[in-house]
Write a structure and sequence with these properties.
By secondary structure, the chain is mainly α. It contains eleven helices and four strands; from the N terminus they run ααααβββααααβααα. The chain has a two-stranded antiparallel ribbon with strand order 1-4. Strands 2-3 form a two-stranded antiparallel ribbon. The N and C termini lie far apart (51 Å).
Length: 299
C-alpha cells in the first residue's frame, strides 16, 4: 500500500477519534438533560464558551498556578452557572417547552454578546498545556504522522469521563435518582425525590462535561464568542442521530458524526463539512425521529 495513503488514512482515523471524543462529551451532557427533564437546552454551547474564556483569562499571561486555577475556576464556575440557569431561568418555565427553548436561546445569545464586549479581540489562542510541563517536542510521530500530545489528553480524558459518567448514573445514589426522574418524574416525586434539585444537578453535570470539552480542546484551535453555536448544532445533530435521551446512542452518534465530517473534509471538500450536522438532523427527523438507539416514546 502506498506510504502516503497509509499516512493519510492514519491521520483521518486520529483526527476523527479526537473530534469524536470532544463530541461525545458535549452530546452526553446535552442528551442527559433532555432524557431526564425533556429540556432542549439551547445554551449548551454557551457552557463551552464560558469555560473556554475563563480558562483563557486565567492562563493567557501566567503559567504554573494560573494554569491550575484556570482549570479549577473554569470548570467550577461553569458548573455553578449550569445549576443557576435551571433555578433562575428554566424552572419558572419548565411547563412550557417553547418557553424553555426561548429563554435558553436568549441566555446563549447574551453570553455571546457579553463575551464579545468584555474581551478585547475576536479570536484568541490558548497555549498547549504541555508547554507548562516542559514537554519537548510538542508532537510525537507515528508512521510518519505528527500527533500533538494535547490530542492524547483529549482522547484519554473523554474515555475516562464517559466511563465515569456511565458508572455514576448507574451506581450512585444521585445517579439512581436521576434515572428515576427520567423514567417518571411524578412517581419519583411521590417517592420523596426532589425533582427540581435533580434537574438542577443534571444541568450542572451537563455544564461540567461541556466545560471539560472546552478546556481540553481549547489549545487545538482559536476561540471566539460565537463558537457556542456550532457546538450546539453538532450536539443536537448527534443526539438526534443517536436518539434523544439515549446516552450510549449519544456516544456512538458522536463518533459517527465526527468521522463523517472528517471524511468530508479530507476526501471530498471541507466546504461541505459544515453541512453534515444539518443533513443528519433533517434526514433522521424525517426517516427515524427517535434516532438509532432512541425509544419510540421519550418522556
Amino acid at each position: 500500500m502506498n506510504v502516503n495513503l497509509i499516512e493519510e488514512l492514519l491521520s483521518f482515523i486520529i483526527s476523527g477519534a479526537i473530534q469524536g471524543s470532544i463530541y461525545s462529551l458535549l452530546a452526553l451532557g446535552f442528551s442527559l438533560v433532555y432524557g431526564v427533564g425533556g429540556i432542549l437546552n439551547q445554551a449548551h454551547g454557551a457552557f463551552y464558551v464560558i469555560a473556554t474564556y475563563l480558562m483563557y483569562v486565567f492562563i493567557k499571561d501566567v503559567a504554573g498556578l494560573g494554569f491550575i486555577l484556570g482549570i479549577i475556576f473554569g470548570l467550577g464556575i461553569t458548573t455553578i452557572i449550569g445549576g443557576l440557569m435551571y433555578l433562575l431561568l428554566i424552572k419558572p418555565l419548565k411547563e412550557s417547552h417553547v418557553g424553555v427553548v426561548i429563554v435558553t436561546f436568549a441566555f446563549a445569545f447574551f453570553i455571546e454578546q457579553i463575551v464579545g464586549i468584555l474581551v478585547d479581540k475576536i479570536y484568541h489562542k490558548i497555549p498547549d498545556y504541555f508547554l507548562y510541563f516542559g514537554v519537548d517536542p510538542e508532537y510525537f510521530t507515528v508512521l510518519g504522522v505528527d500527533i500533538q500530545y494535547q490530542s492524547l489528553i483529549i482522547i484519554i480524558v473523554a474515555i475516562v469521563l464517559v466511563v465515569l459518567t456511565t458508572i455514576f448514573i448507574k451506581k450512585s445514589k444521585l445517579g439512581k435518582s436521576i434515572r428515576a426522574v427520567a423514567q417518571d418524574s411524578e412517581a419519583a416525586e411521590l417517592m420523596g425525590i426532589n425533582v427540581d434539585k435533580i434537574l438542577a444537578y443534571t444541568l450542572m453535570i451537563s455544564a461540567f462535561l461541556a466545560g471539560v470539552a472546552a478546556i481540553i480542546n481549547g489549545p487545538l484551535g482559536t476561540v471566539a464568542p460565537h463558537i457556542g453555536w456550532p457546538i450546539l448544532i453538532n450536539s443536537f445533530a448527534i443526539v438526534v442521530l443517536g436518539g434523544l435521551g439515549s446516552l450510549p446512542g449519544s456516544v456512538i452518534g458522536a463518533f459517527i458524526l465526527a468521522f463523517a465530517s472528517k471524511f468530508t473534509d479530507s476526501f471530498i471538500d471541507p466546504i461541505f463539512g459544515a453541512l453534515i450536522p444539518i443533513v443528519v438532523i433533517v434526514v433522521m427527523l424525517v426517516i427515524r425521529p427517535r434516532g438509532l438507539f432512541g425509544k419510540k416514546e421519550i418522556k
